[in-house]
Model the fold of this input.
Amino acid sequence: MAQSHCVNSPTTLTGKLSLRAYTPSASSHSLRTFVSSKFNRRMFCSMVISASSSRSTVSGGPPKSLLLDNSERKNELMDAINSSLSGCLSETHLDSAVPGLNSKTRGKVRDIYDGGDYLVLVTTDRQSAFDRVLASIPFKGQVLNETSLWWFNQTQHIIPNAVVSSPDRNVTIAKKCSVFPVEFVVRGYVTGSTDTSLWTVYQKGVRNYCGNALPDGMVKNQKLAANILTPTTKAADHDVPITPEEIIRSGLMSESDYVEASKAALSLFEYGQRIAREHGLILVDTKYEFGKGSDGAVLLIDEVHTPDSSRYWIADSYEDRFQNGLEPENIDKEFLRLWFKDNCNPYEDEVLPEAPTELVSELSWRYIHLYETITKSKFELPSTKEPIHDRISSNVARVLSSLL
Done:
């Protein structure tokens, strides 16, 4: 029997606006130690999980489309990636190094510092999934920060954003605003592996998800008839699906703010899909966050269309692989998610296995490759002459002093 999830409740949309300060909560698991000796790593020496295969299959390399089109560039980057495995930016302490910075909030990926009227967001190399930190990926923080900045610049015609400055490759300074406690998840396909993914709940018989009616007979990775919005809110350390009516009735957002933000989310996703397709990619799903500035304007915040917040597939091979029941070639973190699901219970295990080095390096390459594919610009490797934390502290101090 079909089930419902986040079924629309009341028809009267009333409620007062409830806002909170920008203080993303860290996962309670984020400081766990990674121990690998007790876990079976399935002989991962020199092997990489490929999205070309099923969940439990191991492949000797990345999807051919990535390998053949970019082998020279990949070889060029891999030495730098491998030599940086032990030097990832996993933690920052700018509050003790930069005058004018007050409290620090440690999110799953970003370290966020209070700078008076501004927030200093440092994107680290921490890799999160399943609402916890899994590993650290070389250059990931720089990729995410620069990818977001590119999209922020490209989408100002849809909605204004909170960006003020980017003093460093890993840093964005943003206007301080009240953040709506809702993540706007937009989906174009039935897919995913987490507990809140559309495919996971669909398999369980859910046919009404966050107010969206889903037809029977859909299969994994199938394109939806139209893009849908499946908002979530936070409860402790996990995302909770919620309907628009529940958001408004509970006072998480006013009706007018929700309408504006949801319209912007769908427009951003449609625009992102078009740009991705022009670059040979499919933007499958993503999440957006919004806040309200001191002037009352709804602003786009956090990150936009990054490989952390979004799922990307290779466009050329999607249809053929879908028709043959194969997983799409992906260029995001899904293969790392699947490795953890195959080797532990990432939601319940107190201690996680250590991610294989080969997968960490592969993910770093894919993040860089996605950045270069989308922006059509070459990723600039940071200089190793100056310690990364010293570089960030110096750059932030210089720009922040001119703002305060």
User: Anything to note?
Assistant: The first strand starts at residue 3 and ends at 5. The two ends are 60 Å apart (CA to CA). Residues 7-68 have pLDDT under 50 and may be disordered.
